[in-house]
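Progress narrative, Year 2. Work on Putative spermidine/putrescine transport system permease protein from Aquamicrobium defluvii advanced from sequence curation to structure prediction during this period.
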Amino acid sequence: MSLAWLGVMPFLLFALLFLVLPTMQIIVGSFRNAAGEFTLDNIVNLFQPSIMAAYWISIRISVASALLGCLVGFLMAWAMVLGGLPGWLRSPLLTFSGVASNFAGIPLAFAFLATFGRLGLVTLILRDWFGINIYAMGFNILSFGGLTLTYLFFQIPLTILIMTPALDGMRREWREAASILGASPFQYWRMVALPILWPSLLGTFALLFANAFGAVATAYALTGSSLSIVPILLFAQIRGDVLQDPHLGYALAFGMIVITGIANFIYIWLRARSERWMK
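Result:
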């Protein structure tokens, strides 16, 4: 073997210890009972109404945050790359996006409670200055809408980071050719630009879906057990519930692996298709 492999050995070791082996343990544990015997009971128990409801609300939150993240993030990336905004905005926006896309967990939950909680800064400003009581209107940070709003903090920046290179790859010659042939700006975007960007947009949506579906620290720190989503239900089965069943927790994690794996496969496949257009 070449000595160049030594440079990548730390990564391979890290991936083996913290990704491959834990995943294999989860898969094997999903098909075992407390005595270590093979069983399908854990998989069958996933179809309980309470567990199916937890998967359903997790999917809804992931879809909602992914859709809104794609829409807002794409518009921001378009405004930065093709919308004529000052060039000096690009570097600060991308720097912030790189930081915000990795900002999650307890700090993010605290930040949103301090901002949109019942005594949060924005809540009090809207109430005292503008007479708008968002909680009287039905908003609740510890709910489906509140968690979706919180997830947007890292979903939008992630979309900006992904879509900026795709928009940079849009060649000026394509717009000029469409204009020469008599196409309006709307026709150019509908018939040329969006078909080219569509795989990137769908791939970004799939990645954002997987990103939100697997988030646990932010949801647990923000809502506790008041919102029964799969990561919180999994945490209760492994660590905190008095009726804990670690092997059912393994099965819950196995279901999450399947769903996020499908989403990531779609992202990789669509990303590869979009990159062929950019070459």
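DSSP finds twelve helices and no strands in the chain. Residues 34 and 247 are 7 Å apart (CA to CA).
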